[in-house]
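Entry:
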Amino acid sequence: MERNKNQKITPTLWFDDKAEEAMKFYVSVFPNSKINFVKRWTEEMSLPDIAIKPGTIKIASFNLDWMQFYAFDAGPAFQFNPSVSFYVVFETVAEVNEVWNKLAEGGEVLMALDKYDWSERYGWIKDRFGVSWQIMKDELKNVGQHITPLIMYSGEKRGDAEEAIDLYMSIFDDSVIHGIARYEEGDFGPHGMIKHAQCRLMGQTFMMMDNGTDKDIPFTEAISFFVNCRDQKEVDYYWNKFTKEGSESECGWLKDKFGVSWQIVPEFLMEKIENGETNRVNNMREAMYKMKKLDVAQLMEAYNK
């Protein structure tokens, strides 16, 4: 099985030695799901802020219905929280209940599964690994995909959801807003801010909201968004757009102006990691560790030497 190379933006989950267990759990919970490929750490490594254990996941890909995810193990530096959750739509109450009950095993309920103004069956839950899911009965045509990343802006960033939508739509081609609902008088949330917004970026649905409470839930690298780039021109484009008011990190990672983490990665790198010769891939990785923005020519040179 192969990853979906046509998906431009891929949610990526950072685990502490639980990636394989989590992937197997998720594909058992969600229908039409599969693990695409798994690459393991073969030796103990020590990188800044990262502890590597042999046998754990170096990088893996799995699909939950249409949506592709990446997962890897790299120590306990970052923890999942509800700043990024995954909004799941099913068309029957039975499907909602079945998935909810599985995610609830060892998890924590954030909003009870119940009838609300916006749905006859909805709930928000944190699973046993800490990843947050919003499960809802709705018509699939209203969203366009079963599973959708939802980014929530909190603390100092509360009120930034609308600006974030504008930024992301200016960066990604083929983008359109499908709807914005605002907190109104009497709502449990700040009047005028975004209660729920839905847009499509490069053909993929994303959702954004401003936190309805005063609780600060900061973004962390535990969930990042991987942008698959055809070539150096695309790497440069996305890197420059996101870091204009954001901040650079290492190995193709960056944070946008709101603190959301993105990985800007050329296709060449992922293709070699997935299918390349181990020694050459290790040479390429050593070169990558010295980079901030990824340089495709240098990665090719390191792989081919």
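Residues 93-104 form the longest helix (12 residues).
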